[in-house]
């Protein structure tokens, strides 16, 4: 149940992004659901590998390079999923940050401390 609710929260966060940024567009709820699923899978499978491979750059940049990794993965998902569009890298950079903040805020409001709705 928690996984399903987290997926819906992430899709809602994606649906909110076009209202905050004109360079991001989501055509419909179905595209947001698919994009949230693909983004979750990419962050689960590919992101840890990229973080390990870029560890020296991340250490030198005091962890700020992780924001670049997040932006690149967000941009990748926008290219993979039809109906979800991001204008460019810097749009993806800001959108990834906003997506994280919105998703965190909704999760904090809708999920209890033990992770249950």
UniProtKB/TrEMBL annotation:
Q: Does the keyword Nucleotide-binding apply?
A: no
Q: Does the keyword Membrane apply?
A: yes
Which species is this UniProt entry from? Answer: Telluria mixta
Q: What is the lineage of its organism?
A: Bacteria, Pseudomonadati, Pseudomonadota, Betaproteobacteria, Burkholderiales
Q: Which Pfam families match?
A: Phage_holin_4_2
* InterPro entries assigned: Phage_holin_4_2
Which ranges does the record mark as transmembrane? Answer: 28-46, 53-77, 89-111
Official protein name in the record? Phage holin family protein
Alphabetically sorted, this entry's keywords are:
Membrane, Transmembrane, Transmembrane helix
């Amino acid at each position: 149940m928690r996984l399903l609710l987290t997926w819906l929260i992430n899709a809602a966060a994606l649906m909110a992004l076009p209202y905050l940024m004109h360079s991001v567009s989501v055509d419909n709820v179905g595209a947001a659901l698919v994009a949230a699923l693909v983004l979750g899978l990419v962050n689960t499978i590919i992101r840890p590998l990229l973080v390990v491979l870029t560890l020296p750059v991340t250490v030198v940049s005091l962890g700020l390079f992780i924001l670049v990794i997040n932006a690149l993965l967000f941009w990748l998902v926008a290219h993979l999923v039809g109906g979800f569009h991001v204008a460019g890298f810097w749009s993806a950079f800001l959108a990834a940050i906003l997506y994280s903040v919105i998703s965190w805020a909704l999760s904090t409001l809708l999920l209890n401390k033990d992770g249950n709705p």
